């Protein structure tokens, strides 16, 4: 059976790294005789330019009919002053909502060889291996009203969640913890926010369903601090949409670069979308120097979650680790004695290692 994969390259380095993932998947096809069929659709800024909307209907339709979706990144200075509904980011939020991708899994595991690439002390980050489970289709990003009033002199954004929306992401996090080290940290702001109070209640209720998992609650401000002062205390972190967005970029520092952090955005039942945690990186776009590893590892997550191809996913992860261990690195990773390579060279090294 041929796996139907929709590619959404998007903008900036998104369009550069997505072809790295495609090359790697083609290497998997050759080695394991697993055919994939690729088609590409516009999203984000490029879709605004070509179709006057960040999320054309045909893009949504193609994603719904696919077995899995790979997304690069969206956004860039060209569209930064557009009205809200004509911003590239709206396309990304729209596709997440349209596919009901409520669960964003962001694994944060550094490679030993890259310990020195982090500005944090090696003894602090050594052995850190955590998973951020971020709610992706609710909270401040989607609540209404979200607008200006009083002639533009006042604003409102709405942080809204239903119990059901909280329950499903919290269940997902407990289930993820059961498959890992059985330790769940729920991050909230229950000392202030009503939404966090309900969140915390639900986590407490759910404990009974997952007796093997130990649970603690940490306020988000303290969590931000603990993440970089004592990251090995965490196994699975579960949190709402915006807290998860911020904490995951912070956590990428443990791995040496945001360019190392993959993610899976999953629905309850339906197509999954796989996207690096990073953005379109306008500061390096067009230079061919972006780190493709976050995107390549996202493709490995796709094989695992959408195609149940565990061996093939592992082959990609092993190839990445091998090349990193051989001391090849892209410009975002600090390395004093390795060999600096660009996006294409890094991709080719990983392809050859498969
Ligand atoms: P960013 O993630 O694009 O970049 C932050 C920094 O990390 C930059 O210095 C960039 O060069 C570096 N970086 C990121 N990925 C890298 C990689 N693979 N290799 C090497 N270096 C990398 O965040 P930003 O600059 O705040 O945002 C830029 C644009 O991207 C904005 O329009 C934003 O809305 C958008 N964005 C999109 C997504 C997405 O599509 N999923 C995610 C985040 C930001
Ligand atoms: C991410 C990004 C997006 C988010 C933006 C571009 C809407 O930062 O995927 O982490 O905040 O979810
Ligand atoms: Mn983000």
TrEMBL record:
It catalyses: (2R,3S)-3-isopropylmalate + NAD(+) = 4-methyl-2-oxopentanoate + CO2 + NADH. Pathway: Amino-acid biosynthesis; L-leucine biosynthesis; L-leucine from 3-methyl-2-oxobutanoate: step 3/4. Substrate binds at residues 96, 106, 134, 221. GO terms for biological process: L-leucine biosynthetic process. Mg(2+) binds at residues 221, 245, 249. SUPFAM superfamilies: Isocitrate/Isopropylmalate dehydrogenase-like (SSF53659). GO terms for molecular function: 3-isopropylmalate dehydrogenase activity; magnesium ion binding; NAD binding. It is an enzyme of class 1 (oxidoreductase). Binds 1 Mg(2+) or Mn(2+) ion per subunit. It comes from the Bacteria. Residues 4-350 form the Isopropylmalate dehydrogenase-like domain. The record marks 141, 189 as: Important for catalysis. InterPro entries: IsoCit/isopropylmalate_DH_CS (IPR019818), IsoPropMal-DH-like_dom (IPR024084), Isopropylmalate_DH (IPR004429). Its cofactor is Mn(2+); Mg(2+). NAD(+) binds at residues 76-89, 279-291. Keywords: Amino-acid biosynthesis, Branched-chain amino acid biosynthesis, Cytoplasm, Leucine biosynthesis, Magnesium, Manganese, Metal-binding, NAD, Oxidoreductase. One of its GO terms (cellular component) is cytosol. Its EC number is 1.1.1.85. HAMAP family: LeuB_type1 (MF_01033). Catalyzes the oxidation of 3-carboxy-2-hydroxy-4-methylpentanoate (3-isopropylmalate) to 3-carboxy-4-methyl-2-oxopentanoate. The product decarboxylates to 4-methyl-2 oxopentanoate. Homodimer. This is 3-isopropylmalate dehydrogenase. It comes from Gracilibacillus orientalis.
């Amino acid at each position: 059976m041929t796996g139907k994969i929709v590619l959404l390259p998007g903008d900036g380095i998104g369009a550069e790294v997505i072809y790295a993932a495609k090359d790697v998947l083609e290497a998997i096809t050759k080695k394991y005789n697993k055919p994939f069929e690729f088609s590409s659709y516009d999203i984000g800024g490029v879709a605004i330019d070509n179709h006057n909307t960040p999320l054309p209907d045909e893009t949504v339709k193609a994603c719904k009919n696919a077995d899995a979706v790979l997304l690069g990144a969206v956004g860039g200075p060209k569209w930064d002053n557009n009205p809200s509904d004509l911003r590239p980011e709206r396309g990304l939020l729209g596709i997440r909502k349209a596919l009901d991708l409520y669960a964003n899994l962001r694994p944060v595991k550094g490679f030993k060889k890259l310990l020195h690439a982090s500005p944090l002390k090696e003894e602090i980050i050594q052995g850190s291996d955590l998973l951020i489970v971020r709610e992706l289709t609710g909270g401040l990003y989607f609540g209404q009203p979200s607008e200006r009033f009083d002639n533009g002199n006042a604003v409102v954004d709405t942080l809204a969640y239903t119990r059901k929306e909280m329950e499903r992401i919290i269940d997902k996090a407990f289930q993820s913890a059961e498959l890992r080290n059985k330790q769940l940290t729920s991050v909230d702001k229950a000392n202030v926010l009503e939404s966090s109070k309900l969140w915390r209640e639900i986590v407490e209720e759910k404990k009974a369903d997952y007796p093997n998992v130990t649970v603690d609650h940490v306020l988000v401000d303290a969590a931000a601090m603990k993440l970089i002062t004592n990251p090995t205390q965490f196994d699975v972190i579960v949190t709402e949409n915006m807290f998860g967005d911020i904490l995951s970029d912070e956590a990428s520092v443990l791995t040496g670069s945001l360019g190392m952090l993959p993610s899976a955005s999953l629905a309850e039942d339906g197509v999954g979308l796989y996207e690096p945690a990073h953005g379109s990186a306008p500061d390096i776009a067009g230079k061919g120097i972006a780190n493709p590893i976050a995107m390549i590892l996202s493709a490995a997550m796709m094989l695992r979650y959408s195609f149940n191809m565990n061996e093939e996913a592992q082959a990609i992860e092993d190839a990445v680790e091998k090349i990193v261990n051989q001391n090849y690195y892209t410009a975002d990773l600090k390395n004093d004695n390795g060999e600096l390579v660009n996006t294409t060279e890094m991709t080719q090294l990983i392809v050859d290692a498969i």
